[in-house]
Design goal:
Length: 290
């Protein structure tokens, strides 16, 4: 595993520096002492968008997952072709989620366009997508509401979740539209504190969250968990998942280190919680065995 990570680092076009490389390799070796093998990771926030295709083919992406000890990845991409490339390469490992973004539809305008509903319906009918997202929803205005209601009902009807990047407000509004919806909340709201995240999880049983970009909040020193986050993780170990968010190519260059950051704080939790957050919760949501 460590030799594989070192090989990836040497091959990286951009490079991440000697100190960063040492940090990555140290993180990969810092697994729980009570486990003979490192806990598996199911990465629930992966993008394989067009900007990465020239540097990383599907086989290269798989090697990065191997180096990081990631067994499965939930993938959405801009455009959707990237998701399909990975899922066709290894359908048991790369779990496809349908992102709305494509020609002319982006993070700022997708929900306002009525055509998005037909696009999503047509793509969902052709593939084994396990969700809709990850999409950005900074607010819900009058122009967005008709489309969002249809998308929410579509997800409930198909029994798939929405993967949403937003603060708490839009999440509340979507649950008001259809209380039966399931939502995977990206980045635990990104800027929301553990108090708000806890309130949301308590209020909405259909809500779970992944913590990409939140390692520094959960564990400011990289080892010990912040007391408020620790209380939350102990209360809701069945509602958290791991994510990396490879939204730009340089995140793939750093991929083993991104996962190592999560492993570092995970090992402070009981082994049962480590396994739930690391893999089992995502497996329950997005299905199937290895």
């Amino acid at each position: 595993m460590v030799n594989g990570a070192a090989m990836v680092l040497r091959k990286s076009k951009h490079g991440i520096g000697f100190i960063r490389a040492i940090a990555i390799l140290s993180g990969l070796m810092a697994w729980p002492a009570q486990s003979a093998e490192p806990i598996p990771i199911f990465d629930t926030h992966v993008h394989y968008s067009e900007s990465a295709w020239a540097e990383y083919g599907p086989a290269d992406i798989e090697k990065l997952l191997d180096a990081a000890g990631v067994g499965k990845a939930l993938v959405s991409s801009t455009p959707d072709d990237g998701t399909l490339r990975l899922s066709r390469h290894n359908p048991k490992r790369f779990i496809p989620v349908l992102r709305p973004y494509h020609q002319g539809f982006n993070a700022s305008n997708w929900a306002a366009k009525g055509e998005i509903v037909a696009y999503l319906e047509s793509r969902l009918a052709k593939g084994d997508y396990r969700g809709i997202g990850e999409f950005h929803l900074p607010m819900i205005n009058a122009a967005d509401r008709p489309q969002l209601l249809k998308v929410t009902n579509m997800a409930v009807r198909r029994k798939i979740p929405l993967h949403i990047h937003s603060d708490a407000g839009p999440i509340r509004e979507l649950f008001m539209m259809n209380p039966e919806i399931r939502i995977l909340w990206a980045h635990a709201g990104m800027l929301e504190g553990p108090d708000v995240v806890g309130e949301m999880l308590a209020a909405y049983p259909g809500l779970s969250t992944e913590v990409s970009f939140r390692s520094a909040d959960i564990s400011p020193d990289g080892t010990h968990i912040d007391p408020d986050w620790r209380t939350l993780l102990d209360k809701f170990p069945d509602r958290f998942m791991i994510g990396s968010d490879t939204y730009i190519t340089t995140r793939w260059d750093e991929y083993p280190g991104l996962i190592a950051e999560h492993r570092s704080w995970l090992k402070a939790l009981p082994e049962k919680s480590q396994r739930m957050i690391g893999f089992e919760n995502a497996e329950r949501w997005f299905g199937g065995g290895n």
